[in-house]
Amino acid sequence: MSKKVPPDQNLKFECLVFDLYGTLFDLKSFARECDKLHKGRGEEILESVRQKQLEYVLTRSLVKKYRDYASITKSAIKYSLQKLKLAASEDRIEELFSAFLRLEPFDDVERALNDLDEIGIKVMLLSNGTQEMVDKLVEHARLSLLSEEAVSVEGSGAYKPDPKAYQHALNHLQIFEKQKIFYVSGNPWDVAGARAFGFEVGWVNRTKQSSFDDDFRDLTPNYEFQSLVEMKEMLLS
Ligand code: LAC
C-alpha cells in the first residue's frame, strides 16, 4: 500500500474542485440503462436529456427562477421521451431518473483520486445536481477518497455557470483566494463559466473534441488533458 505524503509545500493549489456529470461520471452509462428499456435509443435519449437540462438551467438562471435539478432532470426526461415518441409514463420517468443516480465513474477516477490523496491536495465536487442526487451518486460509486465534501450548488440558489454557484465552493471551503483552486470539468460551458469566475481551469476532454469551442475563445481552459491521470504530472510540474 502506498504511503501518504504530507502536502507538498510547493503545490500551487490548495484544493481541486471537480464537476460531476461528464467529468467524473460517465453519462454513457445512463444511455446504456435507457437502451435496456428502449432498445437502440439510449444515445438519442441521452443527447436530448442533456440538451434540455442545460436549456432549462440557462433559462431559469436568466429569469432568476431557481428550481431544483432533480425536477429539471425529470422534466428533461419527460420532454425527451415524448419527443422521441417513447412511453413517458410517470413510472418510466422515475425509472430513468433513478438511472441518473447510478451512473458509473470514468475508469481513471479512482486512480486520480488516489494520486491526489497521496499528494495531499484537498478534493471537492461541485455539481448542479441536488445534494440528494450527488450523495446517492457518490455513495453508489463508493468514491471514498474525497477529503472535502461533494457539494450541490443548491445552497447558492444558482446553477453553474452563474458566478454565484462557483462562489459557493469557495464559501464552503472557506478559501477566499480564487487562485488557490484548480477547477476541473469535462463540459466546455462549465470550463468557460469557471474561467469567467476567475478560477484556473483544467478541461478533461472526455469527448475528444478536436479543439475547445471556438465561441469560448476568451474563456479557454488553462490546461487540457485527455484523462485525469495526466493531471498529476501537470500538478507536480
Ligand atoms: C454538474 C453538471 C451539470 O454540475 O455537469 O455536475
Structure, explained:
This protein has 237 residues and is an alpha/beta fold. Helices cover 46% and strands 13% of the residues. It has nine helices and eight strands. It has helices at 28-37, 42-62, 69-83, 90-100, 109-119, 131-141, 163-173, 188-197, 229-236; strands at residues 15-18, 25-26, 104-105, 122-127, 150-152, 181-185, 200-204, 223-225. The strands form two sheets. Strands 5-4-1-6-7-8 form a six-stranded parallel sheet, sandwiched between helices. Strands 2-3 form a two-stranded antiparallel ribbon. Helix 8 links the parallel strand 6 and strand 7 (200-204). Mean pLDDT is 92; it is low at 1-6. The chain binds lactic acid (LAC). Lactic acid (LAC) binds at residues 19-22, 127-129, 160, 187.
Give a short overview:
By secondary structure, the protein is an alpha/beta fold. It has 9 helices and 8 strands.
